[in-house]
Task: structure prediction
Amino acid sequence: MPANLDKWTSGSAYDRWMGRWSRLLAEPFLQWLDIPPGARWLDVCCGSGVVTEAIAEGCSPGSIVGIDASAPQIAFANEHRRRPGISFEVGDAAAISFPDASFDVAVCGLGLNYMAEPARALQEMQRVTMAEGVIAAYVWDYAEGAGFLRRFWDAAASVDPEAVHFDQAQRFPMCTPEGLRKLLQDAHCKNIEVTALEITTRFENFAEYWTPLLSGQGSAPNYLGSRSEDIRAEIRERLKSSFEADKAIELPARAWAVRGNRP
Result:
């Protein structure tokens, strides 16, 4: 298995590559959670603060803390998304630096599968959540539902046999309804529910689809940056030929969301 499969070092690059889709997913996710106003929120693996901002704008929270292991991401979030009631800090999801029962809700958007110890992170999220509080997350359906990613990885694998080792569908078998349910069961959550979040990813043209793949942020861009110029060019042409020339690209995308309560 190759080392350093993922890289999250730039808030602005992350927003160009994945942040806009995380924000689209956050809206149905937060509607599904339906948390009453005034709640204390913890956003784990908050990255550039996309989900934190969605909580602030749509959920009338009492307070929000966003934590992430990446100092550059937190710096970006503090510069661009900080406002009264929101704080961001560097933090380890497997050892959250807050006392027990500090929050009413702990969430994680598109980050659970990138944690070294997702089960440990969920246990920590539960620990810092009050009794009967909500623990929730959403992840891409990498195997079948995230069309813009699936199209890329299928094209890459047809050009480069090593691409399969980077493909999130192979790397993250937990990103299924069954996998997420088991993680929350193992964390001793109760009232566990799983739902699908459906969005459409739209690109005005192929350049808008391709350019974020050169950002170096996340699995697919990091993989692409590790390949030779010839391989990158061949993948680009293989992808481009799979779309209608000079047409907008619309691809359905599905994520799985899971929620449970602390006993």
Remarks:
- The two ends are 38 Å apart (CA to CA).
